[in-house]
Amino acid sequence: MSSEHSKIESLAFIQAEWVRRSQPSPCGFLTVYDVTNEQFLHLIEEGIRFKLDSQYGHGALNGKSVALVFQKTSTRTRVSFELGIAEMGGAPLFIDWRSSNFTLSALEDEIAVLSRYCHLIVARVYHHHDLLTMKQHASVPIVNGLCDLHHPCQALSDMVTIRHVFGSTNVNLLYIGDGNNVCHSLIQAATVCGANIRVITPPADAPQPSIVAQAGDSVQVGHQLDAEWIRWADVIYTDTWVSMGQETEAEDRMIRFMPYQVSESVMAMAPSHAVFMHCLPAHRGAEVSSGVLDSPQSIILDQAENRKHAQKALLVHLLT
To answer: Active-site residue among 151, 164, 198, 278?
Structure first.
């Protein structure tokens, strides 16, 4: 091949790459519904495979870089993504929003620039509309590491956990507590996975009606700790009552939510095979008692571990 021909091919590649990186991101994972039902179910099975085979996916992200842009503090999301990326040969880059120029520049400009450096961006933010802005101006996939409305990576790993424990995702899932971002994503995941989900919350803290309506018959919402609903459950799930950004409401929320604590007496009403789940961090003596957290029915550590396995499957899906 002549050197002139090589130059033309190189120029064509550069132009194609420039066009690709100038276009809005073609895919991503802002909510559970951003992938097809078939893809979500496939991700669950791939997450199981990553869990059972530590060598699976080795080298899958060679040459790939992933930015982790975090407004909020994190333990599980940051560690599971960083280690998962590194274990597959990729390069994770953590960016603390508060100590970067994301605090100075327009979000659309910063995210467009970051897209030129990295192949995928994981963003953990306060507001969902920031993720929509990122998706609009990025030329690489955006993954929601948590926002005020959704936590799809958590829901994906929760379904990996349920699938591993029960051999199926066709379970009865009872969520007790705040109808928050975790609750929203669990409702969406249940509709995809063939699970039945019931949600018990204080009346003022129910999940968004639009998300409940979209789920159809897969979800029911109530406001009392109903013994019949507890006996129905294969999985009992709760989350913090005071999320980041709600600290000024903490005292009022504690009073309002205390009747919804998952205690030993609640778990005693559940079937003997029922398990307890919590996305963590947990507040012992608030949304859950220490006795439940430390009981044989608690699978919270497996649940936390599975964040890494599920997210490996997601990264491979989006990047390869």
So the answer is: 151
CATH value of 154-304 in 3.40.470.10, 3.40.50.720, 3.40.50.1370, 1.10.10.10: 3.40.50.1370
**Catalytic pick among 78, 124, 150, 278:** 124
Q: Where are the domains of the chain?
A: 25-151+307-319, 154-304
Residue 78 designated active-site: no
Regions in the chain scoring below 70 on pLDDT: 1-26
Q: Look up 147 and say whether it is catalytic.
A: no
Contacts of 215-218 with CB under 8 Å at 24 or more apart are 215/187, 215/188, 215/190, 215/191, 216/191, 218/187, 218/190, 218/191
**Active site includes 124?**
yes
Catalytic-role residue among 198, 307, 309, 311: 307
> Looking at this protein, which amino acid is placed at residue 99?
S
Q: Clarify whether 279 is annotated catalytic.
A: yes
How many residues does this entry show for the chain? Answer: 320
Token pair recorded at residue 226? 């109903």
Spot the catalytic one: 71, 118, 119, 154. 154
Transcribe 217-285 into DSSP letters: GGEEEESS--HHHHHH-SEEEE--SS-TT-GGGHHHHHHHHGGG-B-HHHHHHS-TT-EEEE-S---BT
**Same fold? 25-151+307-319, 154-304:** yes
Candidate list 34, 178, 234, 239, residue with the active-site label: 239
pLDDT (tens digit per residue) in 69-89: 999 999 999 999 999 999 999
Active site (annotated) includes residue 150: no
Q: The whole model's pTM is what? A: 0.91
pLDDT of residue 23: 47
109 is an active site residue: no
Tell me which CATH code domain 25-151+307-319 carries: 3.40.50.1370
